[in-house]
Amino acid sequence: MVIKMEYVLQTEGLTKRYGQVNVVDEVSMHVEKGSIYGFIGKNGAGKTTFMRMAAGLAEPTAGAMLLFGCKELEKARRRIGTLIEEPGAYPGMTARENLEVLRRSFGITEKKRVEEMLALTGLSDTGKKKVKNFSMGMKQRLGIAISLMRNPDFLILDEPMNGLDPAGIREVRELLLKLNREKQITILVSSHILDELSRIATHYGIIREGRLIQEFGASDLEKRCRRCLKLVVEKPEAAAAALEELSIQNYDVPQPGMLRVFEGLEDTARINRALVEKGIALKESYLAGQDLEGYFMELVGK
Question: β-strand 203-208 against 186-190: which pairing, if any?
Fold first, then answer.
């Protein structure tokens, strides 16, 4: 693997096999320093398993990994904070008591760290309220506070917005942006709430059946989701020639048998008629222009 120091996390062919099934299948991921990397996939696609391997909670079957450009993963993981699955908190204790236990177990001598984490995550006013009586949003923020106790440079968060009401989602979103912008913490975050993810992510990775099928930046997403006429045809070369006869130059071929036309959308019937008159079998013709959720659904199916 070529070492890229600008990457906080870099994997090459990372694989996790259970029995005969590759739950994570040769994933090569690149998480840039300072980014918020949105990790997207359906349930069972391999997101949590990948995150567990990155955090050192599961051993890869094959492949390689670098953290902060370093092969000494155990040492590098001291710079990582994680929230994977349930927050590891004692339900019969307060938020402050939970963080104090962690401070002592981690050997952190700065007693003010607990108050700093409570303030940062908006939990300073929870007082004597026990965690078992917290709302889901409060529990998630406590989980993030726990992941921040050792002052990490990199956060790995698995579905931190899961099960939250709109107010809780907003709180977590604003917290992640604050951590990234003010603390310069790189974040790898998975979420099913794609509209919210699109508000914070700078980069994306889409995983399907264990394989990372696409990685792209937020600016690329805007291009991929542009309004266009999508044409599915048997003869894409002939269809492209027919478009150019109509003086249409702004089109591309994102995959075999499909063209995306970005001009002349006010008269799609003219385009369709021209293709049919050229003897081109037109399987599908439809206007598209979508958000992250629409783009994701198109890639992985509903």
Answer: unpaired
What's the pLDDT at 23?
A: 96
Question: 72 Cβ partners below 8 Å, 6+ apart?
Answer: none
Would you kindly state where each structural domain of the chain is located, as residue ranges?
Answer: 7-216, 225-300
Strands 258-261 and 228-233: antiparallel
pTM: 0.78
Helix (H) or strand (E) holding 155: strand 154-158
DSSP-derived pairing of the beta strands 7-18 and 30-32? antiparallel
CATH code, residues 225-300: 3.30.70.980
Q: CB of 193 within 8 A of CB of 169?
A: yes
Rounded mean pLDDT of the chain?
A: 90
C-alpha span between 239 and 187 (Å, rounded): 43
End-to-end CA distance of the chain: 35
| Crossing angle (nearest 10°) for helices 95-105 and 136-148 | 20
Q: Which 3 state secondary structure label does DSSP give 108?
A: coil
Pairing relation of β-strands 154-158 and 80-83?
parallel
Q: Both tokens of residue 70?
A: 């370093």
Using 50, 70 and 90 to split pLDDT, how confident is the model at 254?
A: confident
The domain defined by 7-216 carries CATH number 2.40.30.10: no
